[in-house]
Input
Amino acid sequence: MDRPEGSIELKDLRIAVARARLHGWLYEDAGGEPRWSIEVDGRPHRFGDDALAQELSPRFYDESLPLRIGDWRQLEQQHCRFRWHDDEDEGDSLPTLYLCSHLSLPLSELSLGARDGRRFALQWSGLADANWDEDYGRAMPFRIELQIPFVEQEVRFWQRGDGEDIEAAARAILRKRGLTDAHLRYREYRRFRDAPGDEHYRLVRAFFDPVE
Output
């Protein structure tokens, strides 16, 4: 995959983006609700100038965006707003910065704009906390702007028999859970544990690529 163009503005820093992606996932036996996740990883940056200095890579992510859509193309023109004091008890996942620990964002404004193929115009801003030092600690303004790709749709389920058609089973689960499979191309499957004697051997992860 080509390297993303863009940067993370974090307080007074501008850090180049190493990876950015949108991802769809559905776990059949975990409620079966479609989920949409986002992650933006910065390249390593040196924090501090003394013996305690470290190379740290900031990572902004949300494992379950609060969206109710049935097609990855409908990510276009979606907007998510989160303020810690208003919404701290809502949802299974919160927008988060990982710098030297995982801390929820006090304020997050995320917009996915116009779609170009499988890429969406991302604008993400707000305030972030970290546990580094007084300079990079509390309520740091951040801003991210780039074209972010939707990389894959994952379906995780228990294989019912050795002869089961993995693609057909995964597509049936997508449709049953309210997702269209019309714009997805089956790529591959992997087992959660690739050992027949393991209790998770039949837990299958099926992957689909977006069709533009």
About this structure: The first strand starts at residue 6 and ends at 10. The first helix runs from residue 84 to 87.
